[in-house]
Amino acid sequence: MPIDPRTPVLVGAGVASQREDDFSRAQEPCALMALALERAGDDAGDRGLLAEAALVAVPRGFWGYADAGRLVAERLGAAKAKTLCAEIGVLQTALFAEAAEAIRDGADVVLVTGGEARHRASRARAAGAEEGLSVQAAGTAPDRTLRPAAEIVHPIEIARRFVVPVAQYALIENALRRDARQPIDAHRREVAELYAGFARVAAANPDAWNRSGPDASALLDPARNPWLAFPYGKLHCSQWTVDQAAGLVFCSAERARRARIPESRWIFPRAVAESNHMRPLVARASLARSPGFGAAWRRALALSGLAPDRIGARELYSCFPSAVRIQLRELGLAAEPVPTWTGGMAFAGGPLNNFVLQAAARMPSVLRERGGAAVLTAVSGMLTKQGVSLWSTEPGEAGFAYADVSEEARRAEAPREVAVEMAGAGEIAGYTVVSEAGAAPRTVALVDRDDGLRSLAWSEDPALAQRGTVEELVGTRVRVEADGRLVA
Which residue blocks in 135-290 are alpha helix, DSSP H? Predict the structure, then answer.
């Protein structure tokens, strides 16, 4: 099949990482990004492509650069490049769509990169020093900035101190258990076995941050995996204190041919579908579902022309186990083989707002070896936004396509009305027991009240906290006091 000259292709991918305890010897984030792109240029077989970039696209990180894309472009000699920054809250799959659409609209080379150096920053803080970042002139800003339409969390979640991701995802996990009618011990074992599989993959990934490969028994042992929010321990959580960067080189098919990059090395972005409908956790009718993922998956398949059984490589966004488990459910996939080629965010490393790029940088080697197609997903917030990208070693008849399925996701489920006044009686819809350093365990619950409203409640009762780790609290009749206190 003839390939349209404007077809976007991923021709090079690279990663950069460091684990330097002397922060003064470690490289800053923009240097890691530039290094990852240089390696991506080498992977493409032509580092000269980097200087031709028409666009450098970067997701916002913890760093304070005014325009990280410009710093990277300057290091690579890409003097004509425009820059784009995707703020936190924008799905990382959006950058794949931006790259593909820029090429379709006339760009020959687009660079996508991101990275963090939080390990470096933490070592600097420990030494009582500034980490040291490149400074840009006053007024510097990206040529374009992508921003989310609204806040990720609900005001009541902020007021009740229920904004920490591990706590919200743990509450989702417990709701999943109840929905499946699983006993607590069986559920904990299932979660441990799932993440032990991720750990095994990370152990074989030379770029993974944690290659220790803990097994299910280690994940079940609070001594080795200390509680953070029941049923999650530290090893269930995304590891973002890492120094990692990724670089991707996209070309038009005609430019890739001029560079004499063999077509056997091309990876075709086939489709991106995203739901940007934002419904905070406290207002979700079902805590155990994510309709936006199902909608994005179905639309991406339809646009790409790929059949599900052709998609042999899977990397599901893995900030916490419940994110993976809900995706398996909504996409209709089995838990085996393990849905990762990196080892996931707990073990391979989850640099803020950049893990999807890290996974994408490893994807070409996976597809070049296996052939076929891959799915790579993204999440923003607390499963608040959902993105699906499909890739293959062969072009599709329709070329690249993008769709926003936000309206379909919005229609799929009516929201719960969140109570302004907390007091009322009802049933626990979801809960977790939060274990914060130096504080007594605290039970946090969403309560579906008899009047149809939902309350966010909490309890410092140690007996209730203990009970919540050994028996099911979802469905329990409770009363919520005016101050939000939970009485079981």
Answer: 155-159, 165-179, 184-203, 216-220, 253-258
What confidence score (pLDDT) does residue 438 get? 72
**pLDDT, position 160:** 85
Q: Which amino acid is at 315?
A: E
Three-state DSSP class for residue 463: helix
Per-residue pLDDT at 143: 98
DSSP state of 417: P
d(CA 452, CA 175): 19
The pair of structure tokens assigned to 305 is 């022309």
Tokens 């005016």 belong to: 482
Kindly compute the dihedral angle of the four CA atoms of residues 77, 82, 88, 90, in this order, to the nearest 10 degrees: -130
Q: Would you state the structure tokens that stand for residue 95, as one six-digit string?
A: 């950058």
90 Cβ contact list (under 8 Å, min separation 6): 59, 146, 147, 148, 380
User: Which 8-state DSSP code applies to residue 50?
Assistant: G
- What pTM was computed for the model? 0.97
User: Whole-angstrom Cα distance, residue 291 to residue 327?
Assistant: 10
CA gap 51, 314 in Å, rounded: 32
In which order are the strands placed within the sheet that holds 268-275?
311-315, 373-380, 385-392, 268-275, 401-404
Token pair, residue 185, equals 């011990």
Q: Comparing C-alpha atoms, which of 347, 315, 332 is closest to residue 198?
A: 347
d(CA 71, CA 185): 50
Q: Which two tokens stand for residue 337?
A: 């083989």
φ/ψ of residue 454, rounded to 5: -120, 135
Q: Residue 111 and residue 83: Cα distance in Å, rounded?
A: 10
pLDDT (0 to 100) of residue 51? 98
> What six digits make up the tokens of 223?
């001594």
Do 280 and 139 touch, CB atoms closer than 8 A? Answer: no
Residues of the chain with pLDDT under 70: 1
Q: From CA 210, how far away is CA 199, in angstroms rounded? A: 8
